[in-house]
Specification:
single chain, mainly alpha, two-stranded antiparallel ribbon
Length: 245
């Protein structure tokens, strides 16, 4: 038989994530459990039970007691899950302001531009879901436009522009990757992909050779994946030619 004193089978049946006993006590015992709840939600597409979610909001500051290496590993599992859009729960619970405060502004930054349909954060998370499920590529998409909030300008027609956002994204991303204790090789690849993600590459031999020389042959095919995912998270009608290229 099955001994189930906390009705775990019922929660699995109803696709619910809940702590054992008082959630405030569980999170005070180990604050990483707050991130793990969101990670399980992303991996399993389960909802987080209301009292558990409220306890995460009330105890979010405790995440500061956890090493950035452990935080990085949970974030990676969220990003490489089947539902990386659950990353938004980090903002809803205010965990994000303690882990990656730079990203918060992306949720508040619109993109009033014909090529875009979403605000910066929505675009980023859609781009994450559009690229193949590989750690380096998903982290690249998460960070590729993080510099947009500080580079946003609006012209006389009310159209937003983000001149120099790639360079600013590299600067901010380098700070975040160092904080999260990424290894040097992964950091280098992610920053190079972000540097060139907006690079114009025409589909002809001379242009491709020039781009490969500038970008590096080791990441060139990954760059094409990044550019494709970026465009798939924009206005499809206006980006059709870019996607064909």
């Amino acid at each position: 038989g099955v001994i189930d004193p906390f009705n775990g089978l019922e929660d699995i049946k109803n696709r619910i994530i809940r702590t054992v006993g008082n959630p405030n006590d569980r999170f005070k015992e180990d604050a990483l459990r707050m991130l793990r709840a969101i990670r399980f939600s992303a991996q399993l597409d389960f909802a987080i039970e209301s009292d558990t979610l409220e306890a995460i909001k009330n105890n979010n500051r405790l995440i500061r007691n956890i090493s950035f290496e452990r935080i990085r590993d949970e974030l990676t599992k969220i990003l490489t899950s089947s539902h990386p859009g659950k990353f938004v729960l980090l903002k809803d619970t205010n965990l994000l302001e303690h882990i990656m405060p730079e990203f918060g502004a992306c949720f508040e930054t619109p993109q009033n531009n014909p090529y875009h349909l979403y605000n910066v954060a929505e675009h980023i998370l859609k781009a994450v879901s559009e690229i193949e499920n590989e750690e380096i590529l998903r982290w690249t998409m998460l960070l590729h436009d993080i510099g947009k909030p500080v580079t946003r300008t609006t012209d006389g027609k009310g159209i937003d522009h983000f001149y120099g956002h790639a360079e600013e994204s590299v600067r901010i991303s380098d700070k975040i990757l160092r904080r999260l204790k990424f290894n040097k090789k992964s950091t280098d690849i992610i920053l190079r992909l972000i540097t060139h993600h907006d690079r114009l590459i025409e589909p002809d031999g001379k242009a491709v050779r020039k781009a490969v020389s500038a970008v590096g042959i080791d990441i060139f095919e990954d760059l094409l994946k990044v550019k494709k995912a970026d465009n798939q998270a924009q206005n499809h009608e206006l980006c059709r030619e870019k996607l064909e290229n």
